Amino acid sequence: MSRLFGSVRARATLAATLVVAVALVAAGAAVLLSLRSNLLGEAGTQAERSAREVATELAVGTPYADLSLDVDDRPVQVVDDDGVLVAASEDLERITGTGVDAVQPRPAVSPGGEDDDDDDSGESLEPGEIGARITVSDGSATIDGDAEDYRFAAVPVKTDDRGTLTVYAGAPLSAEHGAVSTALTVMLIGFPLLLAVVAGVTWLVTRRALRPVEGIRREMAAITASEDLARRVPVPATHDEVARLATTTNETLAALESSVERQRGFVADASHELRSPIASLRTQLEVAAAHPELLDLDGAVADTVRLQRLAADLLLLARLDAGERPADARVDLAALAREAAEGRTGVRVRGAEGPVSVAGSRGQLGRVLANLLDNAQRHARSAVEVSVRRDGDTAVVAVADDGEGVPAADRERIFERFVRLDAARSRDDGGAGLGLAIARDVAVRHGGTLTVHDAPAGGALFELRLPGV
């Protein structure tokens, strides 16, 4: 049961059925109340009409014996000021709801004598006048053996010789009871059928709507089981939320596949790069262990330094790939460029006199400048020039050399990891192919860009652009 209602389709069906059920119950109750109110009002109108007809006869002096009390077999009572029944329907056997339970009239003791002008309803009536106010009540009566519920209307009338009389006339409520009962029966039968139809339609519609989602789930389960990130989930041709979900899922799979392939390549390249200095260092140590006089101490130190730098580069790349956010410190690029160029031969810094500030990590941005200067010095013939300036809201650092430059076809490839374009970027020169890749990754993490162009002196011009503060 928990598994059944754990599905979206079951919950949607249940929710739709409950909403419709509540709406039907509310609408049904409103219909029944309205129907009952209208029928009771109609019964009250009929009872008042009958009472006024008898009151009219009394107002013109019609004797009790000549009153029209048996029309339509409805109960009628005529009561005097003292609450004495003076006239009633001929076959009336029992009555309740009028306040006078008597069914056999008693003869009048006197013709009425003097009487005040106020009847029980509070109205002041003139002789021969019928009261405008009526009193409505519900009760029952038995006429000629037939018991039934009635709505009674009480109408006062002032007579010349009999004082103020009250006429009670009833209208049957059988039509109201029958109509309400019929409507209730129809609702009790029809509502469950309607709810069943709603539940069935909702179940079928949601199953059809969620069928693509189930296809996506099955394909994702298959991808997980096979670990084949080249597979893609089916995209329905509905152009709705499900289709957009499938498209986004495929985009995520593509990004994941690319990331995994990049990670595999990175691990393979890193293993290859680490193998060489480790193997060289091990060889030198093994030779030194057997022949101490042959120890190449400078070479061992160089391999150790190279291994240390490579490990630091790999660690930084791993942190960048993990999404590490740079610090939000204020960094002066002009001062950072002068600091990075200090002690380097053939490097000249020019540009902004004042600070050119950006927000970010001083250590990572210093690493970018150091990598760019290392690369420029490796390729320059004689000189490297660093310029720092502002371009609107952007801080720009340009590093130019007078070397051979970078071919247009390779200007994006050089930012890939472990890429070397020529012998000048060999391992012996200290390049593992990570410096420019690290520089671009750091630039992107800081919301900027790193591109390469032709330098005025004919070499390469690396331009770092970062949002200024």
Description:
By secondary structure, the chain is of the alpha+beta class. The protein has helices at residues 8-59, 174-226, 241-290, 297-321, 333-341, 362-379, 435-445; strands at 76-79, 85-88, 92-96, 135-143, 146-158, 164-172, 329-332, 347-351, 357-360, 384-391, 394-401, 449-454, 460-467. It folds into three domains: 1-226, no CATH class; 241-321, Orthogonal Bundle (Helix Hairpins), CATH 1.10.287; 329-467, Histidine kinase-like ATPase, C-terminal domain (Heat Shock Protein 90), CATH 3.30.565. The strands form three sheets. The chain has a six-stranded antiparallel beta sheet. The two termini are 60 Å apart. It has seven helices and 13 strands.
Rounded to an integer in angstroms, the radius of gyration calculated over CA atoms is 52 Å
Count of separate DSSP helical elements? 7
Name the beta content range.
Answer: 15-25%
Which structural category do the helix and sheet elements fall into? alpha+beta
How do the strands of the widest beta sheet line up side by side?
2-1-6-5-4-3
Number of domains: 3
Average predicted confidence as pLDDT? 85
Indicate the overall shape: rod-shaped
| Topology pattern, helix = H, strand = E | HEEEEEEHHHEHEEHEEHEE
- Unreliably modeled segments: 110-115, 423-430
Helical fraction equals: 40-55%
Main beta sheet: strand number and arrangement?
Answer: 6 strands, antiparallel
- The count of β-strands is 13
Distance between the termini: 60 Å
